[in-house]
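notes to self, project folder thing:

trying the whole complex as one job this time. last attempt i did each chain seperately and stitching them together was a nightmare. two parts in total, labels are on each line so i dont mix them up again. if this works i'll redo the older ones the same way
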Amino acid sequence: MRYVKLPKEMLGELFEALKMFGEVHAPVKRGKTFLFTKVSSPNEASLNYNRTMLPPKKYFVRPLEEILKVKVGKGYEPVVEEPKRIVLLGLHACDINALRVLDSVYLDEPEDPYYQSRRANAFIVGVSCEPDEYCFCKSMGTDYAWTGFDLFLHDIGEAYLVRVGSARGEAVVESIKKAMSEPTRDDFLKLRDLELKRSKMFKKELNASLLPDIVDSLYESDVWAKFSDKCLACGSCNLVCPTCRCYDATEKVELNLEDGVRLRRWDSCFMRSHALVAGGLNFRPTRLDRFRHRYNCKSSIEPKTNTFFCVGCGRCSAFCPAGIDHVAVLNSLWGLAT
Amino acid sequence: MSNNPYLPKLARLIEAVEMTAIEKLFRFEFVNEEDAKAFSYKPGQFVVVSVPGVGESPISICKSPTRPGPLELLIRRVGRVTNAIHKLKPGDVVGIRGPLGNGFPMERMKGYDIVLIAGGLGVAPLMSVLQYVIDRREDYGDVVLLYGVRSYQEALFRDMAVDLIKHPEKTSIKAFLSFERDDPVFAKLMEERPQNVRKGVVTVLFECADPYIKPGRVCVVVCGPPVMYRFVLRELVKRNVPPERIYLTLERRMKCGIGKCGHCVVGGATAIRYICKDGPVFTYSDVLAVRGLV
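result (full assembly):
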């Protein structure tokens, strides 16, 4: 890994260099929470944040988008969008790993061309973080981003120790050489100590070893109903989840009855319609079925990245209106008091 | 975006043959010759059919790739899209994506006796296997068909079924038929061929088909309504048919057909599968490892 050191007062230089690549989006405080949105200066960005409500997936699989143009009764044409380069500044390790999981689905053959184009045109800048009461990325092994970024900024006090993760990242660093310096041995020791401190700060812990087998084999456990009885089946957890990627597709026809669009929009496995087939058969007819399905899906391992489908970002727990905590559900399954 | 997997290829309806009150056999031909040439598939694969302005629906191919000519899809009028398909007239245009899914491993099945077990509309994907095996007759052993239907009126390919049973000498296929409702046509057939026709669900046929199910040399191919699999599997397990030679083709809700949209995801946390991409054909070994497959 190539490392460089960026004094914090030089963040503006990096920001300008990133702007040369594309529109910069970063976490910004809105009300009680944060969201990724366009920023024009580093001051607008909150690089010390716990989590955004919506994860970065919104840039790649949009909440609602047109994928095809429809000529009623005649056929289809693809919706072609001009590739737009963006910089996502300030992604946490969990969200970077979540993008790798999304990649494993959307870039698997046959590639999703919409996702592929947006992903190729996005420059990813990670930033180090400290866990809050919802974070459990350490348990899932996703507290560390070892790949999937162009640059990764580690806050070591008065400077960022920057890991350079790609040739594109290298080029950006090269363009602001003057603002950077070579990290010293002390800087690396600082990084080491801060990382060790961070790793001791986690309040939530989930035993991830054998987790897929525990969740699968204890399918009949009473624990599921205990929590699914409280679940409102609203699907918030799906919307805020950085790896939830189910989408629904529909067609909408204009009033002229000639033109239309095929849309896709985020779907949720908590909706009754998710596994319903024509004729009325539902493969997951009850809320309990759907609740267990989500936990099974999230507790499974993506074989290409060897990463859990859950990256431990804590969003589903932080934003659940019924107060259901992902870790508490699974710890109950482990037979641990919560 | 030239390789957009969501973009359907255009096909024109050649004809729609009424099979029952709610099912028709549709023959489609690709509008562009290149699309027709590029379309090669395996028995058991499916396509996603679009009616422009209405939407998409996954449909299995009801014809063997060994037979040239238009694409054949047997479609029940049951939802929004399939109702729209049923209203199409010859010359009307639809979109086709595919072929999708894994299909049956016809190569691996070579040399074995082939036992086909179909319930109702489940005969549609199995027709591609049946025709394939008939066309490559020397590659396979005995061919046995166990076909369960509700009644003559509701039976698909009923003339073929009656013919296979009445005139076993005409083909090399050993056919057995079960029917659930009182029905004069099939009742009469049962009188004529008591060894081949039974009243009840498809599993009642195991008794008469038993001499032809030799565990050491069969590949069993099953398709029917979801409820059917458990009962059929029980009978096959009782007869010691090896799990890896029992093939099932399954259905689920699908939006993309290419492993993205997530609707057809099945399984426990140790084994998550996409019916569209990892299937729709699975073995009984898969059923044992993947929770909720049947």
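what i see at first glance: Residues 9-100 of chain B form a domain with the Elongation Factor Tu (Ef-tu); domain 3 fold (CATH 2.40.30.10).
need to look closer tmrw
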